[in-house]
């Protein structure tokens, strides 16, 4: 894989370095080049990479080389710590409303994984917390979107509220009312995929939000997203004030730099990851694992932790 | 509206979202110096061309700027467009001459395969071709329902089985039906699959073999659909899909957003596969033939464009 050699590359960048004492700025600079390339290859946004390497350079320069670690390991350790810090605390949870139903609104670009992962989340709450979720079909545009939601709902034995191809704002409102009347304590709104620059459709989301006041607006981001992830996350956050991010399709081999980028620009936590097409394939997000994945050197970090 | 206009229209919408664009970089150009080249490299990375391709392009640009005494900003832009366009494979359109021709459409989850098939079917139907859609995504919830809606919109026939059926069997049946009904083109919709899943890639390979066995003399196209928002992972996608079913072309979807899809430059260069179409929306007409030159120009907008 692409960066299995990252630690070797950093080691060779430190070739001329004496193994004792402190790291100089010049020492760190050459290592930073390799790190920068690795992060870019992992699709971390260019500007985020710039800020990040600046922080790491500052911390690493002058750092004492610990007895137990080589200079390369020392730098990687700092990189890992900073990455983990940037990615935010683990265990971020869905906001549960004190007055049920808790409304969770799934939003994002076309094909990101909203419908599948919204259903997975509903299934998770049903199974683990004995909640009574309701799925609401607010995607009136995509061909067979309602059928899709019905199929996943049936598989999970969770009912689907739909009003055909009506107005999504009305449907959301009616869905929440229906939940209240029928003692459903969670509502998952499946909204249509849309571009963050599509004003009319972004307004639609704002109107849904105003109408039903969801306690959680979850932005679904495809783990394979490239440099554009920052534009998308910023636009959705500016328009709606998102509460959390769900990274879908983490079962692929993408490094997932989009996770770092979206977190860095919105400051909003990544709460869950989608790890497959099946409805049980969802997990809480672990920032430390993501850091290792982005650098593509999980084992190396385990080694450092042991040292 | 032409390809370039449509893409430019997309780019125009991006003003707020994209703060640092190549347009700005170009505007600042006075003469070729290293700072400028570095900025160009950054701009290419932001367009998802990838660090390696960007650095290669900049090296070539530096050489050319020296040899050809490039001095104006516009000349530099043209030179970079030449370099990037030159890296990409030239497209010769889809070959559907020996009938029934088969277009196999593959890619990872949610990239736009089914939608692209709907658009393609509509365009062939409009040319008077009889089109058969094979609903070989028997896995995803309501995938066949979605394709059925597209078949109706496009005026195409469809063969579908129940959920969980063997996709190769769907393909087999659709070929038989197409022969019986005298269809000109069969377009096969496959389930989205991640390229690192061996069993799913084997399933795809099996579909590919069924087509080859049943229609040895037909024209064949195998299109990989890539989402323009995808970053460097697209390279790995293209390599793995190419192993399971030899690619003849790429369709780059969702170019109507702010993502530029620059990664296809490296893929087209690396695999020698041309990009054939771009998707620029969710509507039935939002598919356009790819144009290398227009595409790279859209990656590098002119001054005052933003
Ligand atoms: N491998 C994998 N596939 C996923 C995951 N999440 C979703 N998918 C697949 O991605 C594709 C798109 O998922 P959807 O849930 O339909 O996405 P969406 O955001 O609702 O799409 P639109 O409604 O069209 O905007 C489907 O093929 C899903 O099965 C995941 O975590 N892993
Ligand atoms: N904006 C935009 N959206 C598109 C484009 N092409 C497809 N889409 C949307 O992307 C989403 C996914 O498209 P599909 O055609 O279902 O994708 P797929 O690859 O068949 O998905 P799976 O079968 O689940 O793997 C849908 O919401 C489409 O409307 C495009 O060119 N631009
Ligand atoms: Mg959906
Ligand atoms: Mg599909």
From TrEMBL, chain B:
It is a peripheral membrane protein. Keywords: Cell membrane, Cytoplasm, GTP-binding, Hydrolase, Membrane, Nucleotide-binding, Receptor. It is an enzyme of class 3 (hydrolase). Its EC number is 3.6.5.4. GTP binds at residues 107-114, 189-193, 253-256. One of its GO terms (biological process) is SRP-dependent cotranslational protein targeting to membrane. It catalyses: GTP + H2O = GDP + phosphate + H(+). Pfam families: SRP54, SRP54_N. Signal peptide: none annotated. It is found in: Cell membrane; Cytoplasm. GO terms for cellular component: cytoplasm; plasma membrane. Residues 274-287 form the SRP54-type proteins GTP-binding domain. GO terms for molecular function: GTP binding; GTPase activity; signal recognition particle binding. NCBIfam families: ftsY (TIGR00064). HAMAP family: FtsY (MF_00920). Belongs to the GTP-binding SRP family. FtsY subfamily. Part of the signal recognition particle protein translocation system, which is composed of SRP and FtsY. Involved in targeting and insertion of nascent membrane proteins into the cytoplasmic membrane. Acts as a receptor for the complex formed by the signal recognition particle (SRP) and the ribosome-nascent chain (RNC). This is Signal recognition particle receptor FtsY. It comes from Butyricicoccus porcorum.
